[in-house]
Design a protein that fits this description.
35% helix, alpha+beta, four-stranded antiparallel sheet, 189 residues
């Protein structure tokens, strides 16, 4: 009876197919992940390489503007906001952030695509600041109770000059030149 109740001993050959199958599946997944990373990075590298090689031609700058946070990047970010600002392009060559009606007196608005926060401390006085927190580089989240707020570590900045009011940030938000043109807030050079 002991022979009937005993399970046959497992041999290394019986244990290995499952382990090999697991290794094969892991290998396939790793290869797929690597292929996806390489495939995703190719357009980015091509866009970066195209700007240098072409010297800012029309095709490379269009692909570079979507990934670069420069003036050309903010120009592409103004395109999705609406088609009306593009037809009334600013005379000064800046990019339209949005209508002045979006920025309340004593408050402000974060234009996330352009990485700019615009405030209106007093009626008719518009101030622009970087919407990247100086503490750890996180995006600014909102303007509340007369302060610019980073939601990640609760740094608060003045809507008047971008200086830190509370939280871990010790450095003011860098100023961004903005002006009003035709009822729109425009980022200027």
């Amino acid at each position: 009876m002991s022979d009937d109740t005993m399970a046959p001993p497992t041999t290394p050959q019986q244990a290995n197919p499952a382990a090999d199958g697991l290794r094969d599946r892991r290998t396939v997944l790793r290869c797929a992940a690597m292929a996806a990373l390489v495939g995703a990075s190719a357009p980015i590298l091509a866009a970066c390489g195209g700007d240098d090689a072409a010297g800012g031609g029309t095709t490379p700058s269009a692909s570079g503007s979507s990934s670069a946070p420069s003036a050309s990047g903010s120009a592409s970010s103004s395109a999705p906001s609406s088609s009306a600002p593009s037809s009334s392009a600013p005379a000064g060559g800046g990019s339209v952030l949005g209508p002045v009606s979006d920025v309340p007196v004593g408050g402000g608005k974060v234009f996330t695509d352009a990485k700019v926060v615009v405030t209106q401390p007093t009626a008719g006085q518009y101030k622009g600041f970087s919407a990247v927190c100086t503490h750890q580089g996180n995006p600014i989240g909102s303007v509340e109770n007369g302060q610019i707020v980073c939601p990640f570590h609760q740094s608060h900045f003045s809507i008047t000059d971008g200086s830190p009011v509370s939280g871990p940030a010790q450095t003011a938000l860098p100023a961004v030149n903005v002006k009003v043109e035709g009822g729109n807030i425009v980022e200027s050079a």
